[in-house]
């Protein structure tokens, strides 16, 4: 029940916060750009085109950063403003507190993207745009997955940061690393390895970057696996099987439960060591 | 026994071969029809062809030929002379399938040719092989596990149509031919769909070249040293390179659908070619040009292009330039292709825009694809509205009841 | 029969070998008020945080209503009400909303909110946004939060910090009212006059050490009826 109380409070705080509305405005603008994209799907099954890829990219620039900032700052401010100090004298577990905040912020962020997608979807439907429903559905799922995974990371950043400034710096740093610098770093770093070991290393590293993980798998399930080239055909084929899809869901769950679990553990450990 | 029947027949006779096993080599040296309902099998395992067709107006129909040989340069059927008709044959060969030497005005139709799948491609021979043979029609053949599906050298005015080639090296291989029509054929999972080299006046149209991937030099269509070819209405998808145009000039390439290839179109030392009204969709690299000036690349649809049509002529006023950045990174280490369209990659691409003058450029790209496949359907549109409304309700509920509404009593 | 609200024995706190609170013993009956007096860095706040369960003691034991934190955290938490010294209320909730949130987390019924609002005199401001509250009203809010569910022990860290004389007076009244209801209170302050007006027991702290302690009456007797302010001056500035 405490989880629910914390969650509701988080939602309330979220929607009385100007931050949430500026994110909502930005995200709505971005999703409105969907309207101006002509997407001519090759077939009904294949939802992936270069334009959907471009749109996914826009979301990848924006959503992880938004999630990291909102999540990390919300957790850190609880510490910095002394509200957690007070709550830790309450009969309240660290589990309920962190899990409740995670759930609340997830709802806030999911509302932000739902508004954006809903509005642009409605306009696009009435304008008679050639946008396929399944394309939009997949991009929505893509966004939700990004929120789930990055929010886990965000609460962890919030828990290890001493103040807002630190939380902000770490959030931006991680975003830069995982979203912008990732390919260049790996290309520079892995080029030194013997060629035969590059691909296996890349295939493993995908699971350590939620941005890449979600991007690659959603592309794959949208039927765009071929864009990664023949080298990955077998790999892609495997993930198209039920076992592969299950494995992907499992990895996502490990990310969420792992990062939230780690945060709870850290939070509890710090509880009486101020 | 079959040879004796042939020897005893008079020109113009029809020999109905009874069901059963026969052994070659067989030579047909007068105008005869040799036919079966598929129950006659002719085996051969010598250096001579299993069946040799000479003279004129020989028809082979419905026979089954099994050609076993340790030597790949042996032939199942050798054809010389004119006006022959090879129809509905089922050929299983360790060497060549049907070989035409100075054979003209013949029809090779509805045959099934299967090579030896256990041998590497380099140890097989061509399914249908023409040399110095003109005015033949090669149609509706199904060819698998050979070296090249249909190979033509120094042959003129042949028509190759509605054939299907898979699991071989080249689907269709044209060398120094003139006036060949290659139409409505299908080539998939070969090294190259159609390899056209040193030809004049070739027409390549309505073919489908798909999934040529499993080789470093795989491509859908390769034009090498080709002049005056007309390449149009082909569907070229999921190949390593969709179209490679090398050392070729004055070809017209239009209204092809080039989709989901690693490189859509690649120009190498190509000049004065006319490339227009093609669709380039979902290719990793839409196009590429090296040492290729003076080509007219105009009015194609490029899905990666964000165009702007100000004067309403359906052409963008902004030129499309294909950025080679990603290609240069991935060409030696294809494993890095996993970063295709990764945000960091796109970011770098925009950061490191090199000299754009060297890129393949379409000065007036199309805003909409050429042949419009109307995928829009109303049922999904209703679903779409429902989904959007649901999302909006969800967000309004939480914004109002979760956030804005104050708790008062 | 004596009703022991708080029993502290040998309580000590060290941070990296540096002792900030030397072993201290405290006892508080219900209906009694204990004032921890001293300057900055005296260790008052740390002692209160240890009692509130926020800071882990290095040594010693704490019993609130005969219950220790280690035995049963949740039950222990229900026995205390804590008012932190540093607490930001720059959030866009109303007084009532946040109090209800705290009440739910403390598992006390919603009527408690009205009760404490009445006690601290925030009834008229209950639908105001917390951000718009004055410093004094914020202090009242935090105080109200501590009283939710009528805990056995109130732990108030610098409750009079930043208050103007009018609020000081009303704070004194509130403490006196609570005493009548048999409430046990421990608070820290550097307003010695407030301590003098409300406390039964007084502890002077300096750099983590107890300089003087006892009931207010005893200390008065011992120091010839000096005020706490005068005692303080004598203790710290005269030899």
Features:
heterotrimer; A: 274 residues; mainly alpha; globular; B: 409 residues; mainly beta; Pectate Lyase C-like; 13-stranded parallel beta sheet; 4 helices; 40 strands; 38% strand; elongated; ABC-type multidrug transport system ATPase subunit (chain C); ATP binding (chain C)
Characterise this structure.
Chain A has one domain. Chain A is built from eleven helices and no strands. Chain A has helices spanning 2-14, 18-32, 50-80, 83-87, 94-127, 133-160, 164-190, 195-205, 210-224, 233-240, 242-270. In chain A, α2 runs antiparallel to α3 (50-80) and α5 packs across α11 (242-270). Chain A is globular, with a radius of gyration of 20 Å. Chain B has four helices and 40 strands. Mean pLDDT of chain B is 88; it is low at 372-378. Chain B is elongated, with a radius of gyration of 27 Å. Chain B has 409 residues and is mainly β. Chain B has two domains: 2-362, Pectate Lyase C-like (3 Solenoid), CATH 2.160.20; 374-409. Chain C has 239 residues and is of the alpha/beta class. Chain C has a six-stranded mixed beta sheet with strand order 5-6-7-3-8-9, sandwiched between helices. Chain C has a three-stranded antiparallel beta sheet with strand order 2-1-4, covered by helices on one side. Chain C is globular. Classes of the chains: A mainly alpha (274), B mainly beta (409), C alpha/beta (239). At the A-B interface, α1, α3, α5, α6 and α7 of A face α3 and α4 of B.
Oligomer type = heterotrimer
Q: Percent of residues of chain B in beta strands?
A: 35-45%
Q: Could you estimate the helical fraction of the residues of chain C in percent?
A: 25-40%
- Would you tell me the structural class of the helices and strands of chain B? mainly beta
Number of strands of chain B: 40
Strand content of chain C: 25-35%
H/I helix tally of chain C: 9
The figure for the number of domains of chain C is 1
Can you write the helix and strand succession of chain C as a string?
EEEHEHEHHHEHEHEEHH
Major β-sheet profile of chain C: 6 strands, mixed
Judging by the overall fold, what is the CATH architecture of the largest domain in chain B? 3 Solenoid
Class of chain C in CATH? Alpha Beta
> Number of helix segments of chain B?
4
Q: Which architecture of chain C per CATH?
A: 3-Layer(aba) Sandwich
Write out the strand line-up for the largest beta sheet of chain B, numbering strands in chain order.
Answer: 1-4-7-10-13-16-19-22-25-28-31-34-37
Q: Give a short account of the largest sheet of chain B.
A: 13 strands, parallel
């Amino acid at each position: 029940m405490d989880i629910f109380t914390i969650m509701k409070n988080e939602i309330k705080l979220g929607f009385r916060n100007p931050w949430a509305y500026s994110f909502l405005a930005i995200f709505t603008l971005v999703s409105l750009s969907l309207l101006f994209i002509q997407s001519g799907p090759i077939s009904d099954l294949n939802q992936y085109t270069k334009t959907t890829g471009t749109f996914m990219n826009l979301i990848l620039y924006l959503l992880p950063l938004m999630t990291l900032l909102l999540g990390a700052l919300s957790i850190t401010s609880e510490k910095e403003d002394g509200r957690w100090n007070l709550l830790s004298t309450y009969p309240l577990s660290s589990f309920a507190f962190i899990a409740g905040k995670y759930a609340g912020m997830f709802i806030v962020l999911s509302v932000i993207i739902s508004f954006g997608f809903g509005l642009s979807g409605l306009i696009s439907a009435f304008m008679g745009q050639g946008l396929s429903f399944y394309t939009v559905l997949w991009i929505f799922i893509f966004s939700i997955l990004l929120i789930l995974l990055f929010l886990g990371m965000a609460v962890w950043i919030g828990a290890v940061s001493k103040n807002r400034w630190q939380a902000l710096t770490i959030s931006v740093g991680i975003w830069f690393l995982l979203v912008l610098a990732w390919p260049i770093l790996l290309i520079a770093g892995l080029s030194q390895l013997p060629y035969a070991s590059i691909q296996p290393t890349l295939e493993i590293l995908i699971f350590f970057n939620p941005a890449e993980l979600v991007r690659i798998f959603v592309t794959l399930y949208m039927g765009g696996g071929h864009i990664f080239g023949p080298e990955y055909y077998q790999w892609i084929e495997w993930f198209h099987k039920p076992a592969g899809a299950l494995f992907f869901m499992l990895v996502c769950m490990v990310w969420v439960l792992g990062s939230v679990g780690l945060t709870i553990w850290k939070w509890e450990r710090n509880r009486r060591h101020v | 026994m079959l040879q004796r029947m042939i020897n005893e027949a008079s020109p113009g006779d029809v020999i109905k071969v009874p069901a059963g096993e026969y052994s070659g080599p067989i030579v047909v040296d007068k105008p005869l029809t040799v036919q079966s309902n598929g129950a006659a099998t002719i085996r051969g395992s010598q250096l001579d062809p299993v069946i040799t067709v000479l003279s004129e107006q020989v028809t082979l129909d419905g026979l089954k030929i099994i050609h076993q040989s340790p030597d790949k340069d042996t032939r199942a059927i050798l054809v010389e002379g004119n006006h022959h008709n090879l129809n509905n044959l089922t050929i299983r060969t360790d060497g060549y399938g049907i070989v035409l030497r100075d054979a003209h005005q013949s029809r090779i139709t509805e045959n099934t040719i299967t090579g030896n799948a256990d041998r590497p491609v380099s140890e097989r021979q061509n399914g249908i092989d023409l040399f110095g043979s003109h005015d033949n029609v090669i149609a509706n053949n199904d060819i698998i596990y050979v070296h090249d599906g249909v190979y033509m050298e120094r042959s003129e005015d042949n028509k190759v149509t509605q054939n299907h080639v898979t699991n071989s090296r080249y689907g269709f291989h044209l060398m120094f031919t003139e006036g060949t029509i290659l139409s409505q054929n299908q080539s998939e999972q070969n090294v190259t769909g159609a390899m056209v080299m040193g030809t004049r006046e070739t027409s390549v149209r309505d073919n489908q070249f798909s999934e040529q991937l499993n080789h470093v030099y795989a491509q859908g269509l390769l034009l090498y040293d080709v002049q005056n070819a007309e390449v149009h209405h082909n569907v070229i998808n999921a190949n390593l390179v969709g179209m490679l145009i090398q050392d070729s000039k004055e070809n017209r390439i239009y209204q092809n659908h080039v989709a989901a290839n690693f490189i859509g179109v690649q120009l190498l030392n190509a000049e004065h070619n006319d490339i227009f009204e093609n669709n380039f969709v979902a290719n990793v690299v839409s196009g590429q040009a090296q040492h290729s000036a003076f080509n007219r690349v105009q009015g194609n649809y490029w899905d990666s292009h964000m165009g702007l049509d100000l004067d309403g002529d359906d052409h963008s006023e902004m030129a499309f330039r294909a950025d080679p950045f990603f290609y240069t990174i991935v060409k030696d280490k294809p494993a890095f292709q996993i970063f295709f369209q990764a945000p960091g990659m796109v970011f770098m691409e925009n950061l490191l825009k090199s000299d754009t003058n060297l890129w393949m450029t379409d000065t007036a790209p199309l805003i909409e694809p050429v042949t419009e496949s109307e995928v829009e359907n109303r049922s999904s549109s209703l679903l779409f509205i429902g989904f959007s409304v649901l999302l909006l309700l969800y967000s309004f509920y939480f914004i109002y009841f979760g956030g804005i509404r104050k708790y008062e009593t | 029969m004596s009703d022991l609200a708080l029993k502290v024995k040998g309580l000590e706190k060290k941070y990296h070998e540096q002792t900030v609170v030397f072993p201290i013993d405290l006892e508080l009956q219900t209906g009694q008020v204990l004032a921890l007096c001293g300057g900055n860095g005296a260790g008052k706040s740390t002692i209160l945080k240890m009692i509130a369960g926020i800071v882990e003691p290095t040594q010693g034991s704490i019993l609130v209503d005969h219950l220790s934190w280690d035995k049963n955290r949740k039950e222990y938490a229900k026995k205390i009400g804590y008012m932190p010294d540093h607490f930001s209320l720059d959030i866009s909730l109303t007084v009532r909303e946040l109090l209800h949130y705290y009440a739910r987390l403390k598992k006390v019924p919603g009527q408690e909110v009205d009760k404490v609002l009445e006690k601290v005199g925030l009834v008229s401001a209950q639908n105001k946004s917390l951000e718009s509250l004055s410093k004094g009203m914020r202090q009242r809010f935090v105080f109200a939060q501590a009283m939710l569910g009528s805990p056995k022990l109130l732990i108030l860290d610098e409750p009079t910090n930043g208050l103007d004389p009018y609020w000081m007076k009303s704070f004194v009244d509130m403490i006196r009212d609570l005493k009548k209801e048999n409430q046990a209170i421990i608070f820290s302050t550097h307003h010695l006059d407030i301590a003098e007006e409300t406390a039964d027991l007084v502890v002077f702290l300096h750099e983590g050490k107890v300089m003087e302690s006892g009931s207010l009456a005893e200390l008065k007797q011992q120091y010839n009826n000096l005020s706490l302010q005068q005692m303080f001056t004598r203790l710290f500035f005269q030899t």
